Fold this sequence. Notes:
With about 325 residues, this protein is α/β, with parallel strands linked by helices. It has helices at about 25-40, 90, 95-105, 115-120, 135-145, 170-180, 185-195, 210-215, 220-230, 240-245, 250-260, 265-280, 285-295, 300-310, 315-320; strands at about 10-15, 45-50, 55-60, 65-70, 80-85, 110-115, 130, 150, 155-160, 160-165. Strand 3 and strand 4 (about 65-70) form a beta hairpin.
Amino acid sequence: xxxxxxxxxxxxxxxxxxxxxxxxxxxxxxxxxxxxxxxxxxxxxxxxxxxxxxxxxxxxxxxxxxxxxxxxxxxxxxxxxxxxxxxxxxxxxxxxxxxxxxxxxxxxxxxxxxxxxxxxxxxxxxxxxxxxxxxxxxxxxxxxxxxxxxxxxxxxxxxxxxxxxxxxxxxxxxxxxxxxxxxxxxxxxxxxxxxxxxxxxxxxxxxxxxxxxxxxxxxxxxxxxxxxxxxxxxxxxxxxxxxxxxxxxxxxxxxxxxxxxxxxxxxxxxxxxxxxxxxxxxxxxxxxxxxxxxxxxxxxxxxxxxxxxxxxxxxxxxxxxxxx
Length: 324
């Protein structure tokens, strides 16, 4: 049953577009507002596009969004949605942080989609709050902002702070906000307009299951990979991994070679190096601390393994990324 609107005047949403923001996350957030107005037959939502300096902003695929206004005063009841994307650390200037803190002091609800949760955390707006971020950035943010209670769900609503992972997770978030204000019937009608038949909640996780990701449905293999992914900083020996799923080390070896064409040791190393690469690109952690976070106690061994995997050293990787 449709719930009556909780407000007589339209709710206002300001989208703050950071440089190289992700277009799909932004469009998945703004389109449901337009459709909610259309389905309801009246203006439930108004919105504006904001950027640090006004004018046009380029998103991650090179498309430019024109017509944004400069960051300025907003109604205190407006919802601010920060749209992040590639290299959010560089896109989040001191001016952006100052404006977000100011708006938080004025009582605005503030959300972040895709990587913009990092910007909210950097501004101190997620201290003691539950939040989420795109899975690729999850570990880097967890390392940098220990005071944030990070979840791997598609979106999180914690009081006046709202965060959603990348891709179309912002659609799920906005549909939840529409349902909260105007009832599930309207939210479902908007989803129908978008040909979106599987609305996710704040309890749904971001990533596909391990069997779906690796294309293999073998419970023991999936369990071992799950253990590996949860023990990157403190790697577990092949014998202990095998024991955890009631197999011999030789059986585990055969299992990995049959389905993944590599040894458990090789697969585990690739997971650890992938974690290291993400931390190098997404944080300011020293190379030594990155090595430790990826389970390497020897910097020289880390550098050797990294070069073998990516044909460059961790130091050069960090330098090349900084020049982009």
